Amino acid sequence: MAKAKTAYVCTDCGAEHPKWQGSCAECGAWNTLSEIVLQPAVKSAGAARGGYAGKAAGASQVMPLTAVALTAEARTLTGIGELDRVLGGGLVEGSVVLVGGDPGIGKSTLLLQMLGTLGVQLPSVYVTGEESLAQVASRAQRLGLPLEPLQALAETCIERILEQAAVVKPRVLVIDSIQTIWTELLTAAPGSVSQVRESAARLTRFAKETGTSVFLVGHVTKEGGIAGPRVLEHMVDAVLYFEGESGSRFRVLRAFKNRFGAVNELGVFAMGDKGLREVPNPSAIFLSAHAGPTPGSAVMVTREGTRPLLVEVQALVDQSSLGNPRRVALGLEQNRLAMLLAVLHRHGGVAAYDQDVFINVVGGIRVQETAADLPALLAVLSSLRDRPLPEKTVAFGEVGLSGEIRPVPNGEERLKEAAHHGFRRAIVPKANAPKSGRVGELEVVGVERLGQAIDACR
Ligand code: TYD
Ligand code: MG
Fold first, then answer.
1. Which atom in ligand 1 lies closest to the alpha carbon of residue 105?
2. Residues 311, 388: one domain?
């Protein structure tokens, strides 16, 4: 194949340079130039940028939205309920889904298991760039998957993958992983930003043109982003992250971006000797099994995605020997913890400036919503005073800077989940509490100020 024309773009400011240089002449940033392929001019500009909107350049026309024919996306259930939930109700035809996560978390296992059931309905191909065909086959066998519907290809060159795909015409294509894929058009090494970007752009175009659903597996960098900056995340329709603590067998699949469903939707799995098993009722696993109430532990009802979850948050507050005491938050935002401690001091009258404060969400899940504020504060307070919170108590609510407890969305649904799991008391924002003060067996205490919340824990 003829060598395509390439150029270098700055990944910071987007300036284009004909030759590589150490620093960008536009913005002065160092080491940000990355090689890209320049498509021949006959191709539309949209295609050259990896988009697909400009595909039918000649036919585009302004029209009122009322004249647009609405077609429901064709969806197929993958056979793995938790995955379907995170995808927003099944796999959409022609969609591109990026599955990211740390090495060894179970990305390959999940996708292979998915093809084991999905492959029966839709012809599928699993492209492996990391493992040999023999390794894939023996893994499939160990997982107890039917081997007949599984087709695999060991290849890393995008041109050859697309050639094979044009012959086999799969409806689902899994690329494991995008970091191993390279194009002949670029001289950069596989895994470099330009290779990953160009390969992903080609696969995205393929998906949109043929209606094939494409899954891209991506490794996560130390900073937590998917390697190959954020460019990949912009190109695809959905980004799912696989999370979990290395010591724990539970894995959480989270929709980080989804053009076809709710973001932050969670799917929960347990890794066993037969691969990943779904956990359809996950509340119970995020509560640690204490014999009785323990200081420093609070249970919150979080609502990530569309489902309420009971999650335990633990705090350890201990005399610090450092001039600058430690504030460590795992599963919650670090800055939020510092803010909560300031509010606790100012509006709760409890000082923790000479204490190390550690806070952790059980089960390795990450809670991003502000409803975790109140339970996190109560856990800190409980540890500081070495006094457990009352038994069978849950809490949720946002804490404001002036010590007010602010309502959070879907209060009723959260309370129902707590009642369903046998909790007896809930400390929640006043606006989230029902007038009757009860939900089933659950007594609901509505609070407006931090002081009231602290009093309610006595
Ligand atoms: P894998 O899917 O290869 O991870 P990734 O593709 O994200 O790098 O998962 C490998 C891990 O899962 C490995 O540590 C072993 C474990 N595992 C099980 O515990 N049980 C199983 O049945 C399988 C297939 C893997
Ligand atoms: Mg893998």
1. 7
2. yes
